[in-house]
Design goal:
With 290 residues, the chain is of the alpha/beta class. It folds into 2 domains: 158 residues, Rossmann fold (3-Layer(aba) Sandwich); 97 residues, Rossmann fold. The protein is 38% helix and 18% strand. The protein is built from 8 helices and 10 strands. α3 links the parallel β4 and β5. It is globular, with a radius of gyration of 18 Å. The termini are far apart. The mean pLDDT is 94.
């Protein structure tokens, strides 16, 4: 019988090539919604919690506090519940109802901050609470165990499952752990692999994709691992999410739609290639926004 944590990772690739017409291009989505907590963030959350436990940074009487836009919080809540660690999660009040309820179902305390102050204020509040001495942050934005999870697992899985034939990797950029860790691994296997980050256009609000102000750029982000960035609009991300469900049977969130939209734009520029994009979660936690 498998322990819950053994089910994290080794997610499948699904062929999305029918979304475009060039027979010399293969497009695959990595279905991170198959993780037990329903998203790619299970990998980083497990790595960060395990790292802090092994270093003795998360001892008796300490409570985790973390700012999150959704998926990381759900993953932390799931892992903390399994390990019987108390957790407080802080997120903007415009987060979807499904995400808030899911965190609370795992037993987490959820604090909602003003939407107009964005996740950046949630991060500031988490820091203030840690400074009080009663809480410990995992701090996904500066914790190297975040990107290392993807260096150890996501990158090797993609390289293995494409038989080393991948030419382009596309990932939405939020905390940037996925693109930094996966990009580093794939570049080490072949410098020719292009790592493509996805950001929102100015004025677009896409859950899970961020364009950070300079003072809030995640400390774990390594720009040398990203060969190119593609901007996608909120409309593009939403419409592509719908296409994934209706044309491919893949029900995913808008950040996955954004990554797929960028991958298709990239495919339109190429004569041939093998593109992998991250389908970072399941669509059921966005139903109230449809």
């Amino acid at each position: 019988m498998n322990h819950l944590f053994s089910l994290i990772g080794n997610t499948p690739l699904v062929d999305l090539s029918t979304l475009q017409e060039n027979s010399k291009i293969k497009l695959y989505g990595k279905l991170e919604g198959q993780n037990p907590g329903g998203s790619v963030k299970d990998r980083a959350a497990f790595s960060m919690v395990q790292g802090m436990l092994s270093r003795g940074e998360l001892g008796p009487g300490k409570r985790i506090v973390e700012a999150t836009s959704g998926n990381t919080g759900i993953a932390i809540a799931m892992i903390a519940a399994s390990l019987h660690i108390p957790v407080t999660l802080i997120m903007p009040e415009n987060s979807t109802e499904e995400r808030v309820k899911t965190m609370r179902a795992y037993g987490a305390e959820v604090l909602l901050t003003p939407a107009d102050r964005t996740i950046e204020y949630s991060r500031e509040l988490a820091q203030e609470m840690e400074d009080s001495g009663e809480y410990v942050q995992l701090n996904q934005f500066s914790n190297d165990d975040n990107w290392k999870a993807h260096y150890r697992t996501t990158g090797p899985e993609i390289w293995r499952d494409t038989d080393g034939q991948i030419t382009h990797f596309v990932s939405s950029m939020g905390t940037t752990g996925t693109i930094t860790g996966t990009g580093r691994y794939l570049h080490e296997q072949s410098p020719a692999v292009q790592i493509v980050g996805v950001q929102p256009t100015d004025g677009s609000s896409i859950p899970g994709i961020r364009r950070w102000s300079p003072e809030f750029v995640p400390a774990i982000y390594d720009d040398s691992q990203v060969d190119r960035k593609i901007d996608v609009s909120e409309t593009e991300a939403v419409e592509m999410s719908a296409r994934l469900a209706r044309e491919c049977g893949v029900f995913a969130g808008t950040s996955s739609g954004g990554a797929t939209a960028a991958a298709l734009r990239l495919a339109g520029e190429l004569e041939e290639g093998l593109i992998v994009c991250i389908i970072c979660d399941r669509g059921d936690r966005y139903l109230s926004t449809l």
